[in-house]
Request: fold
Amino acid sequence: MILEMLSYPFIVRAFIVGILVSLCAALLGVSLVLKQYSMIGDGLSHVSYGALSIALACNVAPLKVSIPVVVVAAFLLLRMTEKGAMRSDAAIAALSASSLAIGVSVTSLTTGMTTDINSYMFGSILAMTEEDVWLSVILSVVVLALFVFSYHNIFAVTFDENFGKATGVKTSFYNSMIAILTAVTIVLGMQMMGALLISSLLIFPSLTSMRLFQSFRGVVISAGILSVVCYCIGMVLSYQCSMPAGACIVLVNLAAFLLFFCLQKIKGWIR
Reply:
């Protein structure tokens, strides 16, 4: 069955993009969840949906419009919360609802709910292109390099920004890098997972890993491995059961979370 799946070029592209995006989302998600920005995935995915709707209405390449728009939105969220202008959850909710309303309005006034729009809303493995593959490779290299070579700085920014500033860490730079990389990850991942499900790739792996691991390093490594494994299992189940890929991947992540939760309880009883 695996060989049969890999005989289709679009599935091979979906595997490559999905594995790399899942890995990036899991690594970035650990820091975002610990910083209480876990819902930023929902907000940015809705911004991306609005940008994609406008791009399709104007017959422009979707990625060329959505990536810069989502990056700017991530910066705005970051600055608003840093300066105390608005709480992070309120800012994300306001931006999410506004962007979704813009996207739906543009869609209804132009093309209507076409197959292209539905694929971005609910995800489609047919949406993966060669450009997405190369972008995901570049993204994964940058994210891995950030965590390998700047691990201690990411740790400081995640847990105590004031201490990081006192020790000379450029917290604004690393926050900006996390925002940019998260924005690109959301845009690439939502084509396959859909705007409604992409945030699960940011949230589930880190929450699941935190059930059994206490150290930041352990959670980061576990989340990366777990995210890739869950993605692959979800893709196989999607092919075998003829179900949407995004939904299957989320259900596998949910099953992993419940399994780790039970293991955490058993570990506590043994102690």
Observations:
- The CA atoms of residues 123 and 194 lie 4 Å apart.
- Residues 9-34 form the longest helix (26 residues).
- The chain is about 80% helix and 0% strand.
- The mean pLDDT is 82.
